[in-house]
């Protein structure tokens, strides 16, 4: 008889052993059947007695039990593979929410109303270049152009947009400010005077009334022009105009304004019927300097350095995109800031974008050193400050 290829269960062996032992005991206790028949006179049966094969029956029972167990398994029988565990039909509770990546908030205050000179910041925001670097950037507009640097020094904001002359002036006055990026590489400020007036050079400022938009225009730019022309302070009357410089010049309350944006005010006044004359400050003896910079609070620079580095990288990417897509950039800004979409700003866009800094983090140490020396020699600041106190490249390793 063919035996099973499956391994005999241990219980089957025990049954076989027990059956064999019983057979031996029975054989020892009882006489042979033919002997008994002979004694009792019964004839032989003449047939063969069939004794069941207990070992085979045990094998079949074990095989049947194995098949039953496999059929009742959750995933059925498989070769050399354990059965799959049962899976619950329903979830007992909702999945744990995925935590969003950390976001660093940064509040930046502009130096005035949104303008083409702020293009890198506006485009970076609208193209989500800040957000893609884990930054939540807010751009705020000041009520007074002198406010941003003061709020920055008081830790009320994270960064401020300003001009390089203001940085030198405020550092000399003890404010913890430091340049971390350049937005516009050359000056945009100018001395704008009425064309029907008598002022054609700084030497003719004596006896005039000059308005100014901010303190660095008065205490750095105008002061430098007066000293260069040997004009005493009391020979020029000044007036703080803030954002009203155009109104004052048009109404004739002042003869000129210092610190006016050369790409905006002359065209604006021309549209209103007033002709003006523009005197570019870098052509009047004032050293070349950065037209628009981004300032941080030095006291908070260490914990903010990584966020500032990411911010400046986004600004650099935005500036490159503007250079490659100037018309798309203008449309993007105009849609985001409808008040910016004016004929004056549209005309200024070509001139301004050509002056945007393509490497905002890069620091021209010679330029800052020369300007600091110029201000000190002119008596406009009390002491010389090292470049490291005035400006840094946020991507460079801290010293």
UniProtKB/TrEMBL annotation:
Location of the SsuA/THI5-like domain? 116-329
Gene3D superfamilies linked: Periplasmic binding protein-like II
What keywords sit in the KW lines? Signal
Query: Signal peptide span per the entry?
Result: 1-29
Ranges in a coiled coil:
none
Q: Does the keyword Signal apply?
A: yes
**GO BP term (any one):** thiamine biosynthetic process
Name of the protein in question: Putative hydroxymethylpyrimidine transport system substrate-binding protein
Q: What organism, scientifically named, is this protein from?
A: Halomonas ventosae
* Lineage of the species this protein comes from: Bacteria, Pseudomonadati, Pseudomonadota, Gammaproteobacteria, Oceanospirillales
